[in-house]
Amino acid sequence: MSNNLTIALDIMGGDYGPRSSLPAAVEAVNLIDHLTLILCGNERQIRCELKKLDALTHPRILIEHCSEVVNNDDLPSSALRNKKDSSMRISLDLVKSGRAQACVTAGNTGALLAMAHYVLKMLPGVKRPALISTVPTQTPKPVYLLDLGANVTCDSEVLFQFAVMGAVVAEQAQNIDSAKVSLLNMGAEEIKGHESIKEAAKLLQCSEHINYIGYSEGNDIFSGKADVIVCDGFTGNVALKTCEGIAKLIVHKLTKALNKSLFNKFLALLLFPVLKKLYKRVNPDQYNGASLVGLRGIVVKSHGNASKKAFLAAIEEAVREVERQLPEKIRYKFEEIINKNA
Amino acid sequence: MSNNLTIALDIMGGDYGPRSSLPAAVEAVNLIDHLTLILCGNERQIRCELKKLDALTHPRILIEHCSEVVNNDDLPSSALRNKKDSSMRISLDLVKSGRAQACVTAGNTGALLAMAHYVLKMLPGVKRPALISTVPTQTPKPVYLLDLGANVTCDSEVLFQFAVMGAVVAEQAQNIDSAKVSLLNMGAEEIKGHESIKEAAKLLQCSEHINYIGYSEGNDIFSGKADVIVCDGFTGNVALKTCEGIAKLIVHKLTKALNKSLFNKFLALLLFPVLKKLYKRVNPDQYNGASLVGLRGIVVKSHGNASKKAFLAAIEEAVREVERQLPEKIRYKFEEIINKNA
Hints:
Chains A, B: Homodimer. Probably interacts with PlsY. Chain A is α/β, with parallel strands linked by helices and about 350 residues long. In chain A, about 50% of the residues lie in helices and about 15% in strands.
């Protein structure tokens, strides 16, 4: 039933480079039998690692040699100008040329944004790309949060467009008709917050294309009242990283508390599987990766210190987005809105 | 050794009104023997409740009748104009007139900001007041976070001033010499974030009055690397409420996981005390309250749904701020900076 699909991987990106990306790649082709992967990076290093994994001759693993690597401290502008043969850039070029239908990287986010924007270009009518990811809620369904850091500030029109893109992503992923969309603000009252948010609220209230349910505050993110929560990239980044920090803090405090007596240590041992699962759930960034939406191609960004499991999850996300034809769905939605308004 | 001190309480504010504020007041005078409280609110209601608590004739409990209450949905401008005999306004008036040395309220934050600013006025040289509170870290010391919602946007000078005020608060509270101050940003790199943050970083780097340690990201808040973290009120509000939301989510998920089997239920029972303590620790807003700094008087804001314990904690915080002469310390610091720069 499923068509063959090809995904380009930036094998060199992230804190662990090939050590986490390559085992994830091998597991992905073993799990998904219609998936071909193009591994972008240092050929010698990739071959050496693939040999260890006994996957050197896998028919659905191809290697694209790249002589450069984008480092975590490379400035976006400099990476864009100078690293044209980097594993990150080549992964994007493969999507642009159509050889791959999506790409996955755990590399430098700033450089990725600059390169992806330059190489793939925006979908017609879309002003800015956004980073989107899910955050767990008290319901079985997660909530989609965007933007997570692609844009420091956003005007009301950009926030409106993020609402449209977020709704498409949530509706496709969760197979729902009309995603509930909310704007992140500092209070539920209409008078609070930045002017851009208040203006975006007016645009969303007037739009027949969006099921807008009003403002959310920071604590509402996890309540499940919305399917999509929209904010500027600065706010989204702080909110997501605050989640990461507090999850770490809770594990730290709990570990300390559970180490206080022999009885508590015994408890901790029994509790370990529950806590491990919980930590992963409340630490979304680390485990889900984020997608860059609004571009003419699919780009999934795994966390910089992604483990093999996290990188695999990012590959699987890319596969799902290809199957859902996400950029096309966003393009249709924008055409619909533009035509209606024309 | 300690001098008598008098604090005005807005008894009517918050979701529970007298039900949580009055028992807290009675406990406070019983705990702190040099403390006198002026209870501002509906005299009949207060007398009735005090009678139930067997504290109607307590020599250090005074009642100031107020005919109005600021509601949670009152607009700040309207509360300021129309509620001059409200329990919130009278509490502030008592500080202004010198009859009380501080006031505590769990009422409408927006109205409180407007009224406190109008009644008490800013300290010389201070441009804007800020809401400040502590957040737990992985070290035994908490970190002070400001602004938590008094100002939606802040220019670089305001952020610089918040750094100065935050440092004074942390140094006084933790008895340290030179508090480590950080700016909350979306990345550790110098090129990231709002212009106001980058400008504030330059001001702080150049200042001999502040021990500035660079940017923090959302996840760094809880690491303990800084004593004070500065941001605009929108960002601080989202970060603090995100903490509140994720703490609730974790309790929810853990409760669910621990309900899955009889064995897990047994575990939950054993774990309950550890978890309860942890929840309180990672849910700072709910338990600590926040202080309004930069004004010519001490104002402590308890959480809207403050329990008796939380309201008591807010009274104790007000007592400590009076003893530390916090507004005077901030005034000295600003004079020092202004004189040096003159």
